[in-house]
Automatic annotation (TrEMBL):
Name of this chain's protein: ATP-binding cassette domain-containing protein
InterPro entries: AAA+_ATPase (IPR003593), ABC_transporter-like_ATP-bd (IPR003439), ABC_transporter-like_CS (IPR017871), P-loop_NTPase (IPR027417)
Organism: Pedobacter chitinilyticus
UniProt KW keywords: ATP-binding, Nucleotide-binding, Transport
One Gene Ontology term of the molecular function aspect: ATP binding
Assigned protein family: Belongs to the ABC transporter superfamily.
């Protein structure tokens, strides 16, 4: 298996009864990346994350963590992973610090790590407050500190900003950037909102109904949202013939409509004259740029 990936799944499938929830899913999460795992509600994100954590069983040879097959190297793989799935497992009657000490005792880790983790997630001043009194954002950050205490290389965060206010969202976002940037962690973070992870993610995987619809660098996703020229004409076949002689990149064609890649205003004028001079009636010519949120909706509504 490719060892440049922190996570690799190969044609992964998963069913709940007769419902296939994960379909032929091949994820490739590069080491050191912040991988935004995106999809609408019910797309199969949590199920996939639970499979990656071996909380749900996959078939052998489908899931690889840092190149090791998960089922046959369960302990070694899990040691490399920290996670926050659904609600963080926090004792409300203990302080943040006590929660972390408790986890250290449980895992046999030196308690010196506690102060470091509190500082990392920005909870030093709230260390002696009961966790039950924490805000939602503070609870999430404590959850991340608990996930990080054993110093895993890979962090799986399932919708960590769910229910947080804008400040809480920014705090989690900055924490992820710091963890990947300064501490070299690989982070897989799920969300149903592209906007929430757009600024943090280096890579993106988009799923819907258990199927992977897009996977790549965030820049590649941005490229898909580059502007196009839409030309409304009386005869699209004739227009296509004429435009194809110019070397223009034809993107799509429909009855009365041709879409080509936008390369500049001058070219746009040139295409217009060329069509008119060759007997094609141009009703309208304009550019259109999809913002990422629309692109995401487009991608996820196609299947
Ligand atoms: N334990 C279960 N038993 C049966 N079906 C389940 C179970 N858990 C999840 N599902 C179904 O599997 C599908 C995927 O759910 P999953 O929670 O993985 O999606 P998700 O992308 O994480 O969605 P959300 O953003 O709402 O959490 C849904 O149709 C859900 O109803």
């Amino acid at each position: 298996m490719n060892t440049s990936f922190a996570i690799e799944t190969v044609g992964l499938n998963y069913r709940f009864g007769s419902q296939t929830v994960v379909k032929d899913l091949s994820l490739q999460v590069p080491k050191g990346s912040i991988y935004g795992f995106l999809g609408p509600n019910g797309a199969g994100k949590t199920t996939t994350i639970k499979i990656l954590l071996n909380l749900l069983q996959s078939s052998s040879d489908k899931v690889f963590i840092f190149g090791k097959e998960l089922n046959s190297n369960r302990t070694a793989c899990l040691k490399q992973m920290g996670s926050l799935v659904e609600q963080p497992a926090i004792y409300a009657h203990l302080t943040g610090k006590e929660n972390l000490i408790n986890r250290c005792i449980l895992l046999g880790i030196n308690q010196r790590k506690v102060a470091e983790m509190l500082a990392l997630v920005g909870l030093t001043s709230a260390a002696n407050k009961k966790a039950g009194k924490y805000s939602l954002g503070m609870k999430q950050r404590l959850g991340i500190a608990l996930a990080l205490i054993a110093d895993p290389e890979l962090l799986l965060l399932d919708e960590p900003t769910n229910g947080l206010d804008p400040n809480g969202i920014i705090e989690i976002r900055n924490l992820m950037i710091e963890l990947a940037g300064k501490h070299g962690k690989t982070i897989l973070v799920s969300s149903h909102l592209l906007a929430e992870i757009e600024r943090t993610a280096t890579h993106v995987g988009i799923i819907n109904k258990g199927e992977l619809l897009f996977q790549g660098k965030i820049n590649e996703l941005h490229d898909l949202s580059k502007p196009v020229i839409k030309i409304e004409v009386d005869d699209s076949a004739a227009a296509l013939n004429i435009l194809s002689t110019t070397g223009a990149e034809i993107i799509d064609m429909d009855e009365g409509l041709v879409k080509i890649a936008y390369t500049g205003k001058a070219e746009m004028g040139k295409y217009n004259s060329l069509l008119v001079n060759n007997g094609v009636t141009v009703y309208a010519i304009y550019t259109e740029k999809k913002d990422l949120e629309h692109l995401f909706l487009d991608i996820t509504s196609k299947n």
